[in-house]
Specification:
Layout lengths: L2 H12 L30 E2 L5 E2 L2 E4 L26 H13 L5 E5 L6 H18 L5 E5 L6 H8 L4 E3 L7 H7 L5 H20 L14 E7 L6 H15 L3 E6 L18 H16 L4 H4 L13 H8 L6 E2 L5 H5 L6 H10 L17 H4 L3 E2 L12 H8 L2 H10 L13 H9 L1
Parallel strand pairs: 3-4, 4-5, 5-6, 6-7, 7-8, 9-10
Antiparallel strand pairs: 1-2
Helix pairs in contact: 2-3, 3-4, 4-6, 7-8, 10-14
Amino acid sequence: MERERKIEILAESAKYDVSCSSSGVENNTRQGTVGSTAVSGICHSFTPDGRCVSLLKLLFTNACIFDCHYCINRKSNAIPRATFTPQEVADLTMDFYMRNYIEGLFLSSAIIKNPDYTCELLIKTLKILREEKGFRGYIHVKAIPGADEKLIEALGFLADRMSVNVELPSRESLKLLAPDKDPFDLYKPMKQITTVKKEQEFLPAVRRGPSFVPAGQSTQMIIGASPESDRSIVKISENLYQKYQLKRVYYSAYIPVNQDNLLPAVTTEPPLLREHRLYQADWLLRFYKFTADEILSEDKPNFNLYLDPKANWAVQNYQRFPVDVQTASYEQLLRVPGIGPKSAQNIVKARKYYRLHLTDLKKLGIVIKRAQYFIACNHETPAGLIKDPEWIITSLISSKQYEVLKKHNTQSTSEQLSLFDVERFEHAKSR
């Protein structure tokens, strides 16, 4: 098969994997090497300074031995199949890099023959790039669940970041929709990566040698292929961050690609707005010191899709407001809609030198249109506001914004647990 045709097939197959980012690693070019990586990141995304960066994103092969119901590459699907050689991937990466098309490589793979064999192919690829071609650019590679621990470790010393996709939010769903996969195999590499990184940190600097996965690890969950609530997904993410020190959990709205009575119909639109709310909640976990139980409760386990999670929490806990910006702690300020980490820091710094007034807040980076319902300043509150939670909700969601969100929302809150027949799902689970 011609190389161009392989690229066409395997780049197309790789597009469903969204867990790629390079934040947190820096490798500088040395004499005799090629490429460099900056901490700002490499992938098809925007860096903090506004630059769009890119990477070559490929599957090594889409010829999979597994038959996961939700995957386009399942072995029972009649689709074109292709497999690169390690040399081909290395040559492609260098060709694209030297033409200034990319700044790094994101490499994943279906399971060909068995996990160990697949992992060995990825190791050969990265060795050619690092050792023969002297490539120092960013490489993100997928750990292969079920592969031998020694192979996972060897792969980790060649990559900048590794990811192990948990695929589905619960082990029950994984058992039903990915019967060939063992949930234990998915979490085992995560634990190993965490352990090896901790061991390396405790070594004296002179004995550390090559860095093991210097940019850390990430994972991905498919949203909408199984009936878990938003609350259960957020709690799983919280546990993953705490237990495995993940850099990111990525959420991928399920795109129906297979006709299967255990999955949403192929005519179902991906739940993109729900995915967006999960990313916002994830941000609250990582940067705003929220817990999963604060974001969503047992009696309200799903998001209000038309209100962001932070504003939704503030309205539901309106008895905690208004917060006086002159005296509130940094943590209290973070809970106010319209105040982020940077503007909260600005407030804390500014009030050391002078007494704040409501007119000062916009200059400090506060989004007044959102924050005005939840703040006071020296016991002074914005005049003329109606302090009724229901009225505040309607004010936060303008009619124009509501129409925009409605276009992007493909499922109502009540539909989140019934994308497919839940009774059929429960019946299949019990068999």
